[in-house]
């Protein structure tokens, strides 16, 4: 049974689009961070949030969140292709986001600080007495940083309206989570901060979405943060060029059988929500959209040396506010 | 403008209080800044006036607090982060040097981080947490770094920092904190960021100094006056971006330059000041530039070796004599 077929069908489309876009970007760039097999986490987490909610998606698989927030595919491509029309005009990486859509950018290349920054947008939401919330996702590896522990503790102490989502894909480059911590479940860490911890099947988009939405309701009602661990798997290497020779084929094969898109499709077909032809059409449309967007972005102007922006470092000129 | 006499820290708090009254988006967070009144009374009285809606005691989490400020700023608030002591800045380094300073540039001006980070450094009445790390931050594009030496400048720069739309790192010297009361203008007294200030004019030597060393330099200048030597004391006030024009104008007048700060000499701000003058004002110089700073050793605890470590007025005097030896 599918409780909310409209939402399920919408999330199916986003996941398919994410997969197709991601594969195409991997073809384009050896340094792209592949998200194959992990689509249910960003889509399930950030689908259905309000425009005044703040989204802080982890870098892996984040472009689909930008698109869900209203960014055109063509602009995602402009970033991936390094065009002048990219969000930061070449000043930052393509997995960072347009701030005006309340998507927090990856300001710098170090992992962790965005968890505190998202805690800060939640602080501002509470300061202003609005019922908007913030959702932030990040990898299992990042959850070993001090940033995670300080931020989640602070969010709990101040009962801030935020949902912390660990996208546990089992690997941090070549480091398996089992060797990175003695904790059996990352969701258990919530107990140390006095907030609820929820472990969810991260390859079941409906389960991810339900868990996040429940946490969002708590946050809006003023009950503070929730820590969600969504267990999934990094099906490809850390970057497109990484062959991931450091791990066993058996583990990858096992997770192959739990592909989140195929699982949802099977459920949609079984429930009669989607026909096989309709599912096919979703893939075909995604391929066409991604291809057309890329072709269009390829015609965008290139970045110029003058885009360095030496006179745009400061907002307030020197010598007086 | 009417004025009152107050201490350095009273002037800082007055600046914050006025800006908090003026703008409801301004709030303060830090450790023990609420009912406790802040370490060394850094926020005394703010809790009583603004209470828990505007004054936030944080756990010992400098990094999370700094990151929280960036997030809050992206949502339009204007945080003042009280980092008790400069020695705790390294705990928040990623947020302070990698994140806060680049937001405006990175987002093509669509976002900004109007964040004031205030922290205490230097030798103080209790001798704790003295290390001076301000030079690190002057290396980072996008940060404004200020370090006043008088109560009036403390208030005026604090008000400017809070109104500034960029992150401003505000170094408060502990020896000055509860020192002499000095005249501070009431109300709208704004000291512009990016401007040095001649604290004592002179025509023979410029001593460009920061914070407590400004007072050491004034002491030395006073003694030299008796010998007929006129020392100009230039208070740099803003360390980044440096007031290059103000610096060059002073060196042009005097032809000799000593740079004095309490921080380590090697890799310190003095190196940047000296290099800037060498590049852009070489023609004005009648003597090599001499730097006064701490020796390259960790800061010692015991008062006897602490005294041996800290640069003092005698070091400034020696440096001035050294540059005076060269005649035009
Ligand atoms: C502070 C910091 N340390 C190390 C790195 C290098 N690094 C980039 S991605 C990555 C793996 C992150 O693992 P995880 O958080 O689990 O996310 P995943 O890549 O699995 O999606 C590492 C170690 C970094 N960017 N920042």
SSE arrangement:
The complex is a heterodimer of chains A (321) and B (328).
Chain A: H1 5-28, H2 40-46, E1 54-56, H3 63-68, H4 73-80, H5 113-127, E2 134-139, H6 146-157, E3 162-168, E4 171-172, E5 175-176, H7 177-180, E6 197-201, H8 205-220, E7 226-231, H9 249-256, H10 260-270, H11 276-298
Parallel strand pairs in A: 1-2, 2-3, 3-7, 6-7
Antiparallel strand pairs in A: 4-5
Helix pairs in contact in A: 1-10, 1-11, 2-8, 4-11, 5-6
Chain B: E1 3-6, H1 8-22, E2 26-30, H2 46-50, E3 55-57, H3 62-74, E4 78-85, H4 93-99, H5 103-106, E5 116-121, H6 134-138, E6 144-146, H7 151-163, E7 168-173, H8 174-177, E8 182-185, E9 197-200, E10 205-209, H9 212-226, E11 231-235, E12 238-240, H10 244-254, E13 257-264, H11 269-280, E14 290-294, H12 303-309, H13 313-324
Helix pairs in contact in B: 1-7, 3-4, 9-13, 10-11
The complex binds thiamine diphosphate.
The site of thiamine diphosphate has 16 residues of chain A, from strand 2 and strand 4.
Output the keywords.
heterodimer; A: 321 residues; Rossmann fold; five-stranded parallel sheet; B: 328 residues; alpha/beta; seven-stranded mixed sheet; 38% helix; globular; binds thiamine diphosphate
Overview of this protein structure:
The complex is a heterodimer of chains A (about 325) and B (about 325). Chain A has a single domain (about 5-315), classed as Rossmann fold. A five-stranded parallel sheet of chain A has the order 1-2-3-7-6, sandwiched between helices. Chain A has a two-stranded antiparallel sheet with strand order 4-5. In chain A, helix 1 (about 5-30) runs antiparallel to helix 10. The termini of chain A are far apart. In chain A, helix 6 (about 145-155) links the parallel strand 2 (about 135-140) and strand 3 (about 160-170). Chain A is globular and about 60 Å long. In chain A, about 50% of the residues are buried. Chain A is built from eleven helices and seven strands. Chain A has about 325 residues and is of the alpha/beta class. By secondary structure, chain B is α/β, with parallel strands linked by helices. Chain B has two domains: about 5-185, Rossmann fold (3-Layer(aba) Sandwich), CATH 3.40.50.970; about 195-325, 3-Layer(aba) Sandwich (Rossmann fold), CATH 3.40.50. Chain B contains 13 helices and 14 strands. Chain B has a seven-stranded mixed sheet with strand order 3-2-4-5-7-6-12, with helices on both faces. In chain B, helix 3 runs parallel beside helix 4 (about 95-100) and helix 9 (about 210-225) crosses helix 13. Chain B is globular and about 60 Å long. The mean pLDDT of chain B is about 95. Classes of the chains: A alpha/beta (about 325), B alpha/beta (about 325). Thiamine diphosphate binds near residues 60, 140, 142 and 238 of chain A. Thiamine diphosphate binds next to strand 2 and strand 4 of chain A.
